[in-house]
Amino acid sequence: MPKIDDSFIFALKDAVSREVSGIKNDSLNRIVDNITGVYGGEMVYIGKNYKNALSVRNSKIRNAHTSGNSIATLSTKFLLSERQIIRITKKT
């Protein structure tokens, strides 16, 4: 049965402590204990949150286009085709 890797537990504690300022170490340990108690030994897929990242990128593209940047400039800056930039800028 797989075991939750210590590096995952460290990363989890680090992420929570960065997001929740002033959280006490015992609270962090209880959170990790709850998660490991439920998911310990399980294979759990954690996605990379591409949907949110794309949404943020697309908002930046729309804002830059509204500010006067050309399709060609945005294509180069965001490493996308001009057709992709046009599609993104047409969405509201």
Question: Which terms would index this structure?
Answer:
92 residues; mainly alpha; 5 helices
Quaternary structure type = single chain
SSE run:
HHHHH
Backbone structural class: mainly alpha
Total helical elements:
5
| Major beta-sheet overview | none
Low-confidence stretches: none
As a whole number of angstroms, the C-alpha radius of gyration is 20 Å
Shape: elongated
Protein architecture, described:
- The protein is an all-alpha fold and 92 residues long.
- The mean pLDDT is 88.
- The protein has two domains: 6-39; 50-90, no CATH class.
- The longest helix is centred in the middle third of the chain and has 17 residues, at 50-66.
- It has helices at 6-19, 25-39, 50-66, 71-78, 82-90.
SSE arrangement:
Layout: H1 6-19, H2 25-39, H3 50-66, H4 71-78, H5 82-90
Helix pairs in contact: 3-5, 4-5
Summarize this, please?
With 92 residues, the protein is mainly alpha-helical. The protein has helices at residues 6-19, 25-39, 50-66, 71-78, 82-90. The protein folds into 2 domains: 6-39; 50-90, no CATH class.
